[in-house]
Task: structure prediction
Amino acid sequence: MKVDTPLSSLASSTSGTITITIDKDGGYEVNGIPREPIVSLNVHTGASKLRRYLRESNELIVCPGVYDGLSARIAMQVGFKGLYMTGAGTTASRLGMADLGLAQLHDMRTNAEMIANLDPFGPPLIADMDTGYGGPLMVAKSVQQYIQAGVAGFHIEDQIQNKRCGHLAGKRVVSLEEYLTRIRAAKLAKDRLHSDVVLIARTDALQQHGYDECIRRLKAARDLGADVGLLEGFTSKEQARQAVKDLAPWPLLLNMVENGAGPVITVDEAREMGFRIMIFSFGTLAPAYLGIKTALERLKKDGVVGIPDGLGPKHLFEVCGLMESVRVDTEAGGDGFTNGV
Result:
C-alpha cells in the first residue's frame, strides 16, 4: 500500500511529497528507505494518572505511607487516590532494620512492584528511591527498574550513600554538582524510556546547609526537568509556606512525619499552603506497631490475642482480594471454589 503525503501536513518547511509504503507485516518504507515499525504501548497507567492529577487539577494528592501488601490493600479499601511506598517501612518490614540506608535497589524495587501491581488500575504509587543506589549508571538502572515495576513516581535525594532517615539527626549531603548528576541521570533514563513516571527531586540539605541552599538545589533540579520538589524536614510551618512561594508554580510534595523533626501540618493546612502532594511516611507503620504490640502483650498476659468479633480470616482475605480471585477462577471455568469459601 502506498500513501502520498504532502510535506506540509508533516510540519516540514520544504516542498514535495513523502511516499510511505506499508507491507502486510507492518514494515514500511519512506521514499524507498526501509524503516522499523514503531509500537507504542501505554502500560504505565499509574504514572499517566499521577501526571494527569498534577497537570489537570489543583487538588492535593494525599498518599498514606504503605510498606507491604496488606497496608496497601487497606489504603485502597479506604479510598485514597494515591499511595506512597516508604523506605523506612520497607526497611523495617523486609529487613527488620532501622532506616540507615540498608535497603538497596532489589529490596525497594521488588516491594514497589508488588504494591503497584495489586491493582494496576488503582491509585498510583509514589516510591522512595533514596540516593539512587550509586553513580549515574546505577541511578539510570534504578529508574528503569522502577518504571518496569509500574511505579508512578519516585523521589531521589542528595544524601551521601551512607544515608539515614530524613528525620534523624546527623544527615550529610553530597555537593550540588553530584546531586544534579543524579537528577540528570534520572531524567535522561525516563526520557530514553518515554515514560510518564514523575521525577521528584528531594533535598535533605536543611540540617547541614540551611534553607537557602535547599531552595538553590531544588531550583537547579527543576531547571534540569524534575517534575516535583521535596524539601525534607521543615522546621516550622512558616518555612513550609515560604518554600511553596519561593518555588511557585512548581509543585511541591510535603512529607508529613508526626513526632518527627518538624511541626505537624494537617491536610487542610497543606492544601491551604499550596502543596500538591502530601505523603505520610509512617501513616501505617506506626499504627501497625502499636496494634501488634498491644495484641501480643495481651496474648502473653491473658493467653488470647483478643481479636474483635467478625474480624476472622475471611474478612482479612476479602481485603486482600479474595472475591476477585474467586471470580477469575470461576469465569475461566475453574471449579475450585464451587462449594464456596
